[in-house]
Amino acid sequence: MAWQLSLDLPLAVALGSEDFILSDANRAAHRMVTAMGWPEGKLALTGPPGSGKSHLARLWQATSEAIVVEDIQRLSPAAEETLFHLHNRLAASGGRLLLTADRAPARLDIALPDLASRLQATAVARIADPDDRLLRAVLAKHFADRQLVPMADVIPFLAARIERSFSSAAAVVARLDRLALAEARPVSRALARRALGTSLDIPAGRAR
């Protein structure tokens, strides 16, 4: 079978307010993030990779005069010191601080004791793993971001078979994109079945 070479081009991911999908898995977190008052003016938004933390943080930041620090589970020692001073400055000035992470601040391995104690006192809004409705909607969004139009039975087929996680939804759509492009075929249930059953040794990237 002849493969079509694909190019590694960036995705035009839709990040508008109308593109944020609400369900029982994230409604409480959305409500907390968009609320006017946070305890001590700070909030930690947590959830698994690909759950929409960055999307929600950007929507909130666009309508507020506030600071967002993302992925604080990856802070370097120097970044910890910077965040500590930023935290204190915002607390003194009455500013607001939104943090994102893959777990609650109390579970983070923060080396700087003063910062760790401040983060542990931060209110937490958590996005849970997707429910069935959200998983299907996330699959549909990933297809749309990649300008793919799957056949009507593809999303229900995938949702019933993949792990119920945001990362699994992103991975299977990326795999289908590469396979459909390489073979110049539509995204059908048959192609989805193959995508679930093979590691797909296909060049990464896209060309659309």
TrEMBL record:
Biological-process GO terms, alphabetical: DNA replication initiation
Protein origin, superkingdom: Bacteria
Molecular function per GO: DNA replication origin binding
Domain Chromosomal replication initiator protein DnaA ATPAse: 65-121
Pfam hit, one: Bac_DnaA
Gene Ontology CC: plasma membrane
UniProt-listed PANTHER family: CHROMOSOMAL REPLICATION INITIATOR PROTEIN DNAA, DNAA REGULATORY INACTIVATOR HDA
Listed name of the protein: Chromosomal replication initiator DnaA
Species this protein is from: Limimaricola cinnabarinus
